[in-house]
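notes to self, project folder thing:

trying the whole complex as one job this time. last attempt i did each chain seperately and stitching them together was a nightmare. two parts in total, labels are on each line so i dont mix them up again. if this works i'll redo the older ones the same way
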Amino acid sequence: MERVAIIGSSMTQFGQRDAWVLDLLSEAGLECLEDAGVDASDVEHLYVSNMASGEFEGQTGVMNALAQDIDAVPAYTQRVDQTSSSGGAGIYAAWQSVASGASDMTMLVGGEKMTHKTTGEATDVIASLTHPAEYKHGVTLPSFAGLTARHYLERFDAPRESLAKVAVKNHKNGVDNPKAQFRKEVDLETVLESPIVADPLRLYDFCPITDGSAALMLCPESVAEEYTDEYVVISGIDGATDTHVVHEREDPTVMRGVVESGEGAYEMSGRDPDDIDVAELHDMFTILEFLQMEGLGFAEQGEAWKLVEEGYTERDTGELPINTSGGLKSKGHPLGASGVAQAVEIYEQLMGEAGPRQVDADVGLTCNVGGFGNCVITTIMEAAQ
Amino acid sequence: MERVAIIGSSMTQFGQRDAWVLDLLSEAGLECLEDAGVDASDVEHLYVSNMASGEFEGQTGVMNALAQDIDAVPAYTQRVDQTSSSGGAGIYAAWQSVASGASDMTMLVGGEKMTHKTTGEATDVIASLTHPAEYKHGVTLPSFAGLTARHYLERFDAPRESLAKVAVKNHKNGVDNPKAQFRKEVDLETVLESPIVADPLRLYDFCPITDGSAALMLCPESVAEEYTDEYVVISGIDGATDTHVVHEREDPTVMRGVVESGEGAYEMSGRDPDDIDVAELHDMFTILEFLQMEGLGFAEQGEAWKLVEEGYTERDTGELPINTSGGLKSKGHPLGASGVAQAVEIYEQLMGEAGPRQVDADVGLTCNVGGFGNCVITTIMEAAQ
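result (full assembly):
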């Protein structure tokens, strides 16, 4: 079967935006068309990754509105929701649309508009993805993160500082990303002394609430070659669920969705963890970067923190740079956009277009986590030039 | 490429249900597994067609909850939203998941829970799919239907009674569908004297607000043959948008999404309108049955009403029975479930399992309309036994 290529990408400024989600989607969509050199009338399928425009704005049907706004009618549209991994699910949907032969040119645009809500209102929308039995007891996503972090630190004898170092690293990377929400370095002391949110995790262990959009253009490799000599292919992709009721999992430090989707993506691509040159992981909470490093085979269980301490995941000096974009931590986390933006970063790295963030990479990986690992999508991308 | 087969189906009782959407999805999902003879652990992809569980219930992530409820973890899940055509979009997503080789066993479950809301609250959620510029002027979906119906009747010199006859026919068919919300015949006089909603359309020209769920099991034909000797294949499927701003369309009686998705489905299947033996059309409003008959080539523009008057679409005596299930009009319209339930009816007809509703059919078609034709999915199914 012919491979699926990515021939263009875009990302709006992330942060607090004076625009509705449709404006953000249109901005990213139009920029992606231009970046790929594709005419809107050639787009056959248009997927929109978005968790909750209805809840955030009282506006649904944004995928149909987008088709008209960017002049892509009568392209087929669909909204993809997989909560906080809607972006990764969108990549999988777009990949399937091309790989099945249904579309020879598919654009994926992910976006979310959140900052017009108070933090309480926004977290209420996000918390609606948890199981009612847990939600009613107040166990929201940050609570799960705090409980898991405490367990991890004690069980694996890891220092609290190792978690803070994830935040320090990702903030440092974000300084060089002009699209990131926060472009400022933070030191270890700042993280460790920030207000407690879910003990032992503090404010700087959490990603912010963000507005933003990102887009990718996908097509069969044979079509890609009509547009460009240099492109990226998706060599592996898979998604998997874990129990929706988080407390029913056997080991709180193992995210089954990460493990299973990673195994699927490695198998499909013929790659293994050692082949990965750069990765974007879903650092919604610092502890998640450890769990994904271990679930994806970059570290043994309970040992990811050592690699972080050793500088293994640093951008300029590490063996496996993680979250060169700044991650969700510094770049921001507009739910439906995040998984797409992860792939935009890897695309730019593989194309050699990452500017001051550039690392040496031929093979990259993204891992997008829905809920607290309730569903996870892992994607492996490779330079094809 | 190998064809995609349907090997099982299910549908819950439609109507006013004392259950949340997750309960309805689980009920349909478990019944579909049993009908197909498939173990939950063999389901690789699980798609949930649902427009608005967040808005209706304050509950999102239902696809992940469903995976656990029916014991399908770690199956990949995704929620498919295409407003009122979410069910049809789910069929397209499930088809792509199998046709792309990503999954050898995909279950699609569509569902919506609406009746706990007042009619005003429910229509507010539905109206959120329209363009704000039109919505602010009060032009909701029923208004579009009324305006279009008035235009159609005057332009094509069609009698008001012809629209009412759609409702009479579909109610008559629904009497024989034990899962339908309304199982009672209505006469022409009742329809014509029911309260005006959007002149010239009256209460009985509209489908009700409904709770319900429906499911399908899809797999490659080679896998289907391991499970059963008799199955159905999806021989053609396509989706297309029209302008999101309805008043910008050139001809209000032509739904471009219907025309384009129909052409795509016919071309893929090698079929034409004359080959279709039975069809489920999206009769959210009676006028829509005319527009789809014409857009899909069953009638010339402006002449569908004549076929209805002649009895061409009657179940037991007509040449092309339309909405043998009772249609949205009598069966009910739980948004995310409706497109799936249309395919469930065609599946049962092609399998010879439609009981008192059975017609003689080898090739069937479904047309699922999102918004006021903002996005439409047409599917052609054929008996493969």
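what i see at first glance: Chain A is about 40% helix and 20% strand.
need to look closer tmrw
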